[in-house]
Amino acid sequence: MLSVLKNLWFRDPKESPVYINDIAIRIRAGILLFVPIYMSFTLYDAVFVSHWVVDGNTAVDSGDMDWDYNIIYSVEAIKKSYDYTVQTWVLFYALFEMLAGMFVWSARLSPAILLATLLAKNTKPVWKPIVPKRFAWGIGATFISICLVFFNPDVFANWVNTLAGSTLLPTTVNYMSPWIPLTLVWICLGFMWMETVLGFCVGCKVYSLLVKLGVFKEECEACNNIDWDEIARKNQERLAAQK
């Protein structure tokens, strides 16, 4: 337990480059999987479900029929108003988690990292470099930021207009198509599912490709599973045999 609290999911917080336990990463991705699932239901309701609410008690038969012999009713209907306060806070927490995992000092503030490390402490660790993971989490943070703009268009528009000193974005309508966050949420859900279930990090593969293309100069180490404890044990056995 003390080791978990001291090192979290890092092999050694002071080493360079930094390595983290991929088992804990996958567990954390599973914990955070609830965020895109919750947001997908929210966006489904916002995009595909009718915004009109009809009270069946107010539907009155008008006595007329249309050309297809359907009965015409007169109704009293209201339009739903959406409050995305809860969704906004959930997205802010998810954004915090994406950013917190990028650095040793901020990782200590993450409840999901602590919980994932505790759940993985009895499993043999799989050490992987943190740099490709940072890139993957950066993609996730970008997706989340775009969704935050969709749910709070007036706030973002006011910020932009204030900085620009002019009205660049409207503050009374949502200028972002709902298909943008809906698509991003499903992509995020797929990425996190592959990380959790298959151990396949799409962001890491993209990072590796960009390194090969020369976009990033830092060498992208292949995710490895070097058993340092086993190497140390064999070295001790060899030294003992020599004596």
If you had to describe this structure to a student in words, what would you say it looks like?
The chain is mainly alpha-helical and 243 residues long. It has one domain. The protein is built from eleven helices and six strands. The chain has helices spanning 2-7, 22-32, 34-48, 85-100, 104-107, 111-120, 130-151, 153-164, 179-198, 202-212, 228-242, and strands at 19-21, 52-54, 60-65, 71-74, 77-79, 127-129. It has a two-stranded antiparallel ribbon with strand order 1-6. A two-stranded antiparallel ribbon has the order 2-5. Strands 3-4 form a two-stranded antiparallel ribbon. Helix 2 (22-32) runs antiparallel to helix 9. The mean pLDDT is 85.
Q: Main beta sheet: strand number and arrangement?
A: 2 strands, antiparallel
Q: How do the strands line up in the largest sheet?
A: 1-6
**Beginning-to-end CA distance, first to last residue:** 36 Å
- Per DSSP E runs of 2 or more residues, the count of β-strands stands at 6
Structural class: mainly alpha
Q: How many DSSP H or I helices?
A: 11
Low-confidence stretches: none
Helix content: 55-70%
**What is the total domain count?**
1
Overall 3D shape: elongated
Spatial extent as radius of gyration = 25 Å
Element-by-element helix/strand order: HEHHEEEEHHHEHHHHH
Q: Beta-strand level of the residues, as a percent range?
A: 5-15%
What would the average pLDDT be, to the nearest integer? Answer: 85
Domain DUF4395: 87-212
InterPro entries: DUF4395
Keywords: Membrane, Transmembrane, Transmembrane helix
Transmembrane segments: 31-54, 90-115, 135-159, 179-202
